[in-house]
TrEMBL record, chain A:
InterPro entries documented for this protein: AA_ABC_transptr_permease_3TM (IPR010065), ArtM/GltK/GlnP/TcyL/YhdX-like (IPR043429), MetI-like (IPR000515), MetI-like_sf (IPR035906)
Keywords noted in UniProt: Cell membrane, Membrane, Transmembrane, Transmembrane helix, Transport
Record-linked PANTHER family: INNER MEMBRANE AMINO-ACID ABC TRANSPORTER PERMEASE PROTEIN YHDY, MEMBRANE COMPONENT OF AMINO ACID ABC TRANSPORTER
GO MF entries: transmembrane transporter activity
Protein known as: Amino acid ABC transporter permease
Membrane-spanning ranges: 37-59, 109-129, 136-152, 158-176, 188-211, 223-249, 261-285, 297-317, 354-377, 397-416
GO cellular component assignments: ATP-binding cassette (ABC) transporter complex
One GO process term, biological-process aspect: amino acid transport
Domain ABC transmembrane type-1: 226-420
Membrane topology, record value: Multi-pass membrane protein
Organism: Pararhodobacter marinus
UniProtKB/TrEMBL annotation, chain B:
The entry's keywords: ATP-binding, Nucleotide-binding, Transport
Originating species: Pararhodobacter marinus
Domain ABC transporter per the UniProt entry, residue ranges: 21-255
Nucleus among keywords: no
Signal peptide: none
Protein name: ABC transporter ATP-binding protein
InterPro entries, sorted: AAA+_ATPase (IPR003593), ABC_ATPase_HisP-typ (IPR030679), ABC_transporter-like_ATP-bd (IPR003439), ABC_transporter-like_CS (IPR017871), MetN_ABC_transporter-like (IPR050086), P-loop_NTPase (IPR027417)
């Protein structure tokens, strides 16, 4: 009895203990350094080596950056200013940055690509961020036509008639409603193609003769610089995702014709280097197209880059589809959802979510591949840089230009990569 | 039609003369493998049928043929007056009338519980969103988890997920419910909550076909037990007779195995 009593003797604390610091070895910098940098002798050696390498690089490169020259009109002038010391000549960027961005686009019309770029941000906002108002999606739908008109200018009827092609396709879709999905889709595609290839040109001529509304036209050969990379990159990205989805579904189809066409397309495109496709676009297509057709070079390149990215995209998405358990298809089927609704509401949201890293990977690859267009004579940033280096003023300069171009590409690609990480976090609902 | 009803609550459950499912001379092959052979079966509205049999006997395949998750190659299946053929319109019609609950729930992990329940009514039945949500909450209350409506399936226990799956099917107001081993992926303490939901459904007169090895459930609610082996219906009877007086040797063997321990 007395034992139990001893254990339960009443106790009341009269002074509260103050909060104490943990021992120094468990705290802040000391702890962090010990755990992350000197955690065993291998890591200690690696740490010391890395510090040495970084120190060496800083020692070698620091003067080059520190002595940067910003105001000069030629490399010779830069060298005079530097007077024998090593130093970067960023003046080349300062003098040529407008050309690096716009190419030979008429300077008094720079506002058009700038406006198109700003509107691009507005148009993608509702697609990228759920917080953006959903009504903006209507603007996103109009944007491609608006952007084309702003960039290339000319009569407004061009883009309007092109847009009508989609209307024609939709009309065919409604009219053929009773014939089954395959005929319906095929008919709609054919109707739209007939419109674009055969009817569009004469209709545009008639309309612009009757009602000439337009802005100054800028031909494709005046495009250049980062503008061209962004145009090709954005168009390729926007087109290759939906087409890649269709192609991935085609490859999984149980209709032999559709499956066959998809497989052949994917395997062909993946087996061919992009540069050959680009050469095809610039040279060979002239042989196949009816003589006299003036098929814009940038448009051809966009088509080729898109086809290329589409094949990769299809394979990435197929991976996502394969990762879905069969039960998801069955669950959707059992509820009476038809094929397209099941794809749209159940299958694709999950398959695309799984494929986000691969999709963004393909996007980044596509964007960087746009630099290849230099080989077919489009003056993208690399092409512009070569042209600048060929002038007598800047002959012999190269680091500064390529570092600048690399940095701009890096910013875009890093942005995409960060966005994909954000998206993955936002869509994480499986609570594994 | 069955007449002997032993369990007390069974008196409330009425079986009508109306035919809900008519299967005649149905055969199915997986490649060369003859998985279902000459199945003949009539299900009346309001019937609760339990299908049992050894693993691989074709139970799942049979009920999956009824909403054409599997295609049969010979014979006829008529569900609610609609014959199942390759006509896609008929298939979608039947599927929206027939609810199905799977062993592994097959909830959609990217949607909340509420969205899981409203998706099909909104997109298939074209019910306004508001109304679909009200219906969904009604059925979630019925399966006793309305407070989970805004969570995701991954945040729920197995038993809760299965009850959501039942609610999701019910939101389509089906006239027939199919269950494929709804409790066999669940821990024992969760089986009861799912069975209670199913019993409640049976009491309300739902036409049910249920593949299960829960013999207590069969005895409590079924008005017919079908025993399958090697793709054939070997024996069917009302539950009391089936369990206490099995006729075929295969049935006796099967029952001794599952009730034996
Ligand atoms: N997709 C398929 N392709 C080929 N064979 C299949 C397929 N699905 C099932 N089978 C075979 O058909 C037979 C019946 O399968 P089913 O799933 O209907 O059996 P079950 O009675 O439901 O068994 P369990 O109690 O294990 O679920 C089995 O032998 C199985 O191996
Ligand atoms: Mg089974």
């Amino acid at each position: 009895m007395s034992d139990t009593h001893a254990q339960t003797v009443p106790f009341v604390r009269d002074t509260m203990l103050p909060e104490a610091e943990p021992p120094a070895s468990e705290m802040g910098a000391v702890k962090w350094i010990r755990e992350n940098l000197f955690n065993g002798w291998v890591s200690a050696v690696l740490t010391v080596l890395s510090i040495a390498v970084v120190a060496f690089l800083v020692y070698e490169l620091f003067p080059w950056f520190a002595n940067s020259v910003w105001n000069a009109n030629s490399l010779t002038e830069c060298r005079q200013i530097l007077d024998g010391a090593t130093g970067a000549c960023w003046a080349v960027i300062r003098v040529n940055w407008l050309q690096l961005i716009f190419g030979f686009y008429p300077p008094d019309l720079y506002w058009r690509p700038i406006l198109a770029f700003v509107l691009l941000i507005v148009a993608v906002a509702p697609v990228l961020f759920p917080a953006a108002p959903k009504n903006l999606l209507y603007f996103s739908a109009v944007y491609p036509f608006l952007a084309v008109w702003l960039l290339w200018g000319g009569t407004i009827w061009g883009v309007l008639v092109a847009a009508m092609g989609f209307g024609v396709g939709y009309l065919a879709l409604r009219l053929l409603g009773s014939f089954g999905t395959l005929i319906q889709t095929g008919g709609a595609v054919i109707a739209a193609l007939v419109w674009w290839i055969l009817l569009a040109a004469p209709i545009i001529d008639v309309l612009s003769a009757a009602l000439p509304i337009g802005i100054e036209a800028v031909p494709s050969r005046e495009f250049g610089g980062f503008m061209i990379s962004i145009i090709i990159g954005v168009a390729g990205i926007a087109l290759s995702l939906p087409l890649g989805i269709l192609l991935a579904l085609g490859r999984q189809s149980n209709m032999p014709l559709i499956k066959g066409v998809s497989v052949v397309f994917i395997e062909f495109i993946r087996g061919v280097p992009l540069i050959t496709l680009l050469f095809t676009a610039s040279l060979l297509l002239n042989y196949f197209l009816p003589p006299g057709t003036n098929f814009d070079l940038i448009l051809r390149v966009i088509i080729m880059v898109t086809l290329f990215a589409t094949a990769y995209m299809a394979e990435v998405i197929r991976g996502g589809l394969a990762a879905l358990p069969r039960g998801q298809y069955e669950g959707a089927d059992a509820l009476g959802l038809d094929y397209w609704k099941a794809q749209r509401l159940i299958i694709m949201p999950q398959a695309l979510k799984i494929s986000i890293p691969g999709i963004v990977n393909t996007f980044i690859g596509l964007f960087k591949d746009t630099t290849l267009v230099v080989f077919i004579g489009l003056l993208d940033p690399i092409g512009r840089a070569s042209a600048i280096r060929a002038t007598s003023d800047w002959q012999g300069i190269y680091w500064e230009l390529f570092i600048f171009i690399g940095a701009v590409f890096w910013v875009f690609c890093f942005g995409m990569s960060r966005y994909s990480m954000y998206l993955e976090r936002r869509l994480q609902t499986d609570h594994r | 039609m069955e007449t002997t009803n032993t369990a007390v609550n069974r008196s409330q459950m009425t079986v009508s003369d109306e035919v809900a499912i008519q299967i005649t001379n149905m055969n199915k092959w997986y490649g060369a493998f003859h998985v279902l052979r000459d199945i003949d079966m009539t299900v009346h509205r309001g019937e609760r049928i339990v299908i049992c049999g050894p693993s691989g006997s074709g139970k799942s395949t049979l009920i999956r043929c009824i909403n054409r998750l599997e295609e049969h190659q010979k014979g006829q299946i008529i569900v609610d007056g609609t014959e199942l053929s390759s006509d896609l319109k008929n298939i979608d019609k039947v599927r929206s009338e027939v609810g199905m609950v799977f062993q592994h729930f097959n909830l959609f992990p990217h949607l909340t519980i509420l969205e899981n329940c409203t998706l099909a009514p909104i997109w298939v039945r074209k019910v306004p969103k508001r109304e679909a949500e009200e219906t969904a909450m009604h059925f979630l209350e019925k399966v006793k988890i309305p407070e989970q409506a805004h969570k995701y399936p991954g945040q729920l226990s197995g038993g809760q997920q299965q009850r959501v799956a039942i609610a999701r099917s019910l939101c389509m107001k089906p006239r027939i419910m199919l269950f494929d081993e709804p409790t066999s992926a669940l821990d024992p303490e969760m089986i009861k909550e799912v069975l209670d939901t199913m019993i409640q459904l049976a009491e309300e007169g739902m036409t049910m076909l249920c593949v299960t090895h829960e013999m207590g459930f069969a005895q409590a609610v079924a008005n017919r037990v079908i025993f399958m082996d090697q793709g054939q219906i070997v024996e069917q009877n009302e539950p009391y007779e089936f369990f206490n007086n099995p006729q075929s040797d295969r049935t006796k063997l099967f029952l001794s195995q599952i009730l034996g321990h």
